[in-house]
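Narrative of accomplishments. A recurring question from our advisory board has been how the design workflow behaves on a single, concrete structure rather than in aggregate. To address it, we present the structure tokens for one chain from the evaluation set, followed by the sequence designed for it. No filtering or post-editing was applied between the two.
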């Protein structure tokens, strides 16, 4: 093995000789020309025949699979040496792996955990040299620098900037979340950091975070007219895209999907017509039949089956995933089966609601009954599914949040409270977790706890004109009204009236807010008369 070839995968001068020997034993000889030959393209794809394009794509896919396998071995080695408290070397291994598999968010998070442990143990010293020829290499160098000083928001911002340039949207979103939180908690929040975050989030289509960043910037300079216009522009983009994403997944999920879509770009281009799609399914199926143990080929085949958007294709995909799960015990395969089943439940509900919209009389009642039964079945399935996911990934707060939502819907307030109390530790879900936690307390009739929790949620989400802000204030208003009536508490009634007035001033058509304003003002008047003895 020559030095130049090895430095394609390991930082120059970055490893001590003893570790060089260990890496050679673990990873074997990396032959640079092995992947170069596969990725070589003699002429543009548009000039290729169907057979040439298919062969080119096959070689590209094989080269990608080899890189992912090499990356996996780096990650395993990084985890192993981290367990022995060799954090510097662990960081290098993770960075080397991420250069080959930069969209692997699980490993970015694992690297972050190692970096924080290193800091806790008083880790010092400068990071090793790193290559910077490609956008991905520059992004990974930025992550290396941040890992050596993991609380440094400036280094995180630099990493986010490089991630955007490398078209690593989900990575940019993840790092940007940290920068927002760090700047917000700073003694002197910097408006220019929020403005830069707005631009970077906009660049990757994360309009929810672009709006949040721009609002925070405007809170520091409320009379800035250009900034007010910028916020309106971001809000307009958010409104356009909002309906495309589920509230639980949000824009980070959409970015993740777009990253996966780029990886499948060649397949999508070829499979534009039904005939071409069927031909590609046939070809990939042959690859899979030739090597049924290859999970990467299985995933490729499953993606194509799911593109058909039919229950037959989905059922076949679930059968193959279940077969692979039984053999390989990779839980992510079982999670995919669950996702497909949830998709099928959702589709059936959508079809029934469309039928109900056209139905009348007895037929409408029959469809309503079917919808209620379907909703019950889906909820029962999702309760079991997400409980199992939480058991397998106990540190994933997003899963606990999702399970909590289902537990609350099922009326299991105690279980929901426990889950939301844990989920609020994740900045991404904090405001929503507090919102549902307040609703869970209200469901138990713990009104004081519900009021306190909704107040905390409003502090975490200090805006007053988006959907979540309106929902938080409305929910707090309802709990205060109940508290006022049950405890004859005029202070609660007056606070509820103020909240109702604020909501009405922002949107007079919001839910039943007009009736709420009149009802609450009447309640306050009654209490005042009762207190005065009139």
């Amino acid at each position: 093995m020559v030095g130049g070839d090895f430095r394609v995968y390991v930082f120059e001068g970055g490893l001590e000789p003893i570790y060089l020997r260990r890496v050679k034993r673990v990873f074997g000889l990396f032959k640079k020309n092995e992947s170069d030959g596969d990725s070589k393209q003699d002429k543009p794809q548009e000039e290729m025949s169907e057979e040439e394009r298919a062969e080119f794509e096959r070689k590209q896919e094989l080269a990608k699979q080899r890189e992912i396998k090499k990356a996996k071995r780096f990650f395993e080695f990084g985890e192993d040496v981290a367990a022995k408290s060799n954090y510097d070397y662990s960081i290098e291994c993770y960075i080397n792996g991420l250069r080959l598999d930069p969209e692997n968010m699980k490993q970015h998070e694992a690297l972050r955990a190692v970096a924080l442990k290193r800091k806790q143990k008083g880790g010092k010293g400068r990071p090793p040299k790193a290559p910077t020829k490609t956008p991905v290499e520059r992004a990974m160098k930025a992550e290396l620098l941040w890992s050596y000083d993991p609380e440094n928001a400036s280094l995180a911002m630099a990493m986010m900037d490089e991630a955007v340039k490398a078209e690593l949207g989900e990575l940019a979103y993840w790092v940007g979340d940290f920068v927002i939180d760090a700047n917000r908690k700073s003694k002197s929040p910097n408006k220019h950091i929020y403005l830069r975050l707005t631009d970077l989030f906009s660049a990757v289509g994360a309009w929810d975070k672009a709006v949040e960043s721009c609002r925070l910037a405007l809170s520091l300079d409320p009379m800035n007219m250009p900034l007010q216009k910028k916020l309106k522009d971001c809000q307009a983009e958010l409104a356009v895209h909002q309906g495309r994403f589920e509230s639980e997944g949000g824009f980070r999920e959409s970015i993740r999907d777009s990253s996966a879509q780029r990886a499948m770009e060649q397949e999508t281009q070829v499979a534009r017509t039904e005939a071409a799609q069927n031909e590609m399914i046939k070809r990939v199926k042959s690859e899979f039949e030739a090597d049924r143990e290859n999970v990467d080929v299985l995933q490729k085949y499953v993606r194509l089956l799911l593109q058909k958007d039919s229950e037959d294709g989905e059922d076949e995909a679930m059968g193959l995933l279940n077969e692979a799960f039984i053999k390989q015990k990779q839980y992510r395969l079982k999670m995919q089966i669950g996702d497909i089943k949830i998709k099928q439940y959702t589709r059936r509900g959508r079809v029934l609601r469309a039928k109900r919209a056209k139905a009348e009389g007895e037929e409408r009642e029959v469809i309503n009954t079917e919808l209620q039964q379907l909703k019950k079945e889906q909820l029962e399935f999702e309760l079991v599914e997400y409980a199992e996911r939480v058991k397998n990934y106990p540190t994933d707060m997003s899963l606990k949040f999702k399970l909590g939502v289902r537990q609350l819907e099922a009326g299991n307030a105690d279980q929901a409270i426990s889950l939301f109390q844990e989920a609020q530790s994740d900045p991404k879900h904090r405001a929503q977790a507090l919102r549902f936690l307040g609703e869970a307390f209200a469901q138990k009739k713990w009104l004081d706890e519900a009021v306190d929790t909704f107040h905390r949620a409003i502090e975490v989400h200090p805006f007053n004109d988006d959907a979540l802000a309106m929902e938080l204030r409305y929910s707090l208003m309802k709990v205060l009204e109940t508290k006022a009536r049950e405890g004859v508490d005029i202070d609660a009634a007056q606070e509820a009236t103020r909240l109702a007035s604020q909501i009405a001033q922002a949107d007079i058509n919001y839910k039943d807010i007009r009736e709420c304003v009149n009802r609450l003002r009447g309640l306050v008047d009654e209490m005042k008369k009762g207190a005065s003895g009139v």
